[in-house]
Amino acid sequence: MLTSIAISNFAIVESLELELKPGMTAISGETGAGKSIMVDALSLCLGGRTDAGVVRHGEKKADISATFEISAYPAVQDWLEERDLENTSESLCILRRVISKEGRSKAYINGRPCTLADLKEAGSFLVDIHGQHEHQSLLLRSAQRQQLDEYGRLTDLTRQVREEYNAWRKLKEELHAKQNRSAEQEAKVQLLSYQAEELAQLDLKANELEELENEQAFLSNIADAQYKAYAASGILRDSDEGNVCSLLHQAIQQASAIHPPTKELENALEMMNQALIQAEEASASLNHYQDTLEQDPGRLQDIEQRLSDIYDTARKHRVLPEGLIPLREEVEAELNSLSGSEESLDALKLKEEKAYQQLTTSATLLTEKRMQAKEELAQRVEEQIHGLGMPHARFYIHCDPLDQISVNGYEEIEYMIASNPGQPAQPLRKVASGGELSRISLGIQVVTAHTSVIPTLVFDEVDVGISGGTAEVVGRMLRAVGNRGQVFCVTHLAQVAAQGHQHFRVSKEVFNEATVSKVESLAETNRTQEIARLLGGIELTEQTLAHAREMLGNVQLQ
C-alpha cells in the first residue's frame, strides 16, 4: 500500500509530505484549492504524461516520490528482482519522477534510474486511479470489453489471443502474396528456366576454356612444327653440307693436333667435346619430337566447334566466356529460390492452418470465460446501482457474435441498461442520462475494486452528480472497499467524506505574493468543522456542526 508521498514544486504545491494509512482516506477542500493536485502528482509518479506546465512558477524542477509497502505483494517483489530494482534493505518500492521546467523528466525506482515504461509498469501493480470522467470512456465498447476482461482475470488470455491473431494474419498475408504471384514473376521463372537449361547443356568446366584454346593452337600448327623441327635437326647433324656436329668434329681434330698442348688448349677441347655431345643429343630429341607430331583434323574440328559454342553462348548472355560458369550458378540459385517457393507454399499453408487452429482454440476459451464473467459482473453491478437510486434498473452485458474472428476474439462487448420496468434493454451509450451514467459508472468501479489485486485505489470526484441518501450509499461503498485495503477519495460531499477512516483537507493561501496549496490531516474537531462546511457552506452554524457530529458518530457506530 501507499505509505507516504512527497511533492516539491508541483503546480501550486511548494512542499508537501504526507504519511498515509490503510482504509479509506477522504480528501476535501474548497473549489480551486487543488484537491486533485495530490492525485495528479501521484499519476505522474506512476508514469503519466507530463509537460513543463506542471513545474511551479519560478522553479527549475518538480520532484514527486511515492513510497509503497510491498511485503504482502510478491508479484511486485518478483518484478523488481527480475530487473535488479529491488530495495535490498526493506520491503519497499519507492517511485520517483523529476520534471524539469523544459518538460524533460527522469524516472527512478528505489533510487535507480529507469525508463518511463518501467515506472508505468511498476505503478500498474500498485495503484488504480478512477477519475471523475471515467463514465465518458465507459460509453466506448472497447473500454467495456477491457473492463469485463479485467474483471474476469482474462487480461493474459486476451493478450494471447491478440498476439496469435496478429501472427496468423501475418502468415495469411504472406500466403496470399505467394499464391498471387504476378505475371512478371512467372515470366522471369520461364526465362531463368530456359537460361539454366542452355547453360546446363553447355556444361562448361573450370579451366576448360584455357585448355581448349591451348590445344587448338597446338593442333593448328603441327605442320609448321614438323618442318621447323626437321630443319633444326638438319642444321645440327643430318644435312649433307656442313652441319654443326660435322664442324665440331673438324674443330676438335684441328685443335687436337696442336703441340705442345697447354692447359688452356685442354679446356677448349673439353668444351668442344661437350658441345658436340649436346648437339648430337639435341638432334636426337628433335627427331623424336618430330616423330610424335601427328595431325588430327577431326580433333581440331571438335575443338573449334566447342569453342564456337562457348563464344556464341557468352555473346548471347552478354558476358565474357570466363563469366559463363558464375552466370550458371547465379541463374540456378535464383531459379531455385523462385521455384522453391512452390515447395515452401505447402509448408506455409500448413503453418497458417496450424496458427488459425491455435487462435480459434484460444478465442473459444476466451468466449467461454467471458460468458461466465459477464453474468457475475452484470449481477453485481445491478446490485450496486439499485442502491444508488436506480432500484428498478436492469443491467446486462451483451456479447455480440462477430461474422469472423477478430483481434479481440469472437465477440464484441456491449453494456445494456433498462432503467425502468417494462422497457427493453438498450445500449448504455444510447439511453443513460448524465446522472444515471455517473451512478452506473461508480457502481461498476466499486464492483471491480472489490476484485482488484491492486493495493491502492484512488477515486477522484467520482461522486459528481449525486447527493442525499445516494451520496451516503456511495460513501459506505467506498468505506467497505477501504476496509479490505486502501482507498483515497477526493470528494465535495459530506456524506462521502464522513465515511473516511482518515480525512485530509486541502486549502490554499497567498504567501510572499505566491499562491501555495497545503494539505493537513484533520483531527476530530477540525474534521467536524470540515464536514459542517461541506454541509452548509462558508457560514458554520450550530445546526450544521451538530449535523456533522451526528454523521461522524453514525459512521463510528457502523
TrEMBL record:
<protein>
    <recommendedName>
        <fullName>DNA repair protein RecN</fullName>
    </recommendedName>
</protein>
<comment type="similarity">
    <text>Belongs to the RecN family.</text>
</comment>
<keyword id="KW-0234">DNA repair</keyword>
<feature type="domain" description="RecF/RecN/SMC N-terminal">
    <location>
        <begin position="1"/>
        <end position="508"/>
    </location>
</feature>
<keyword id="KW-0067">ATP-binding</keyword>
<dbReference type="GO" id="GO:0006310">
    <property type="term" value="P:DNA recombination"/>
</dbReference>
<keyword id="KW-0547">Nucleotide-binding</keyword>
<comment type="function">
    <text>May be involved in recombinational repair of damaged DNA.</text>
</comment>
<keyword id="KW-0227">DNA damage</keyword>
<dbReference type="GO" id="GO:0005524">
    <property type="term" value="F:ATP binding"/>
</dbReference>
<dbReference type="GO" id="GO:0006281">
    <property type="term" value="P:DNA repair"/>
</dbReference>
<keyword id="KW-0175">Coiled coil</keyword>
<dbReference type="GO" id="GO:0009432">
    <property type="term" value="P:SOS response"/>
</dbReference>
<dbReference type="InterPro" id="IPR027417">
    <property type="entry name" value="P-loop_NTPase"/>
</dbReference>
<dbReference type="GO" id="GO:0043590">
    <property type="term" value="C:bacterial nucleoid"/>
</dbReference>
<dbReference type="Pfam" id="PF02463">
    <property type="entry name" value="SMC_N"/>
</dbReference>
<feature type="coiled-coil region">
    <location>
        <begin position="168"/>
        <end position="222"/>
    </location>
</feature>
<dbReference type="InterPro" id="IPR004604">
    <property type="entry name" value="DNA_recomb/repair_RecN"/>
</dbReference>
<dbReference type="InterPro" id="IPR003395">
    <property type="entry name" value="RecF/RecN/SMC_N"/>
</dbReference>
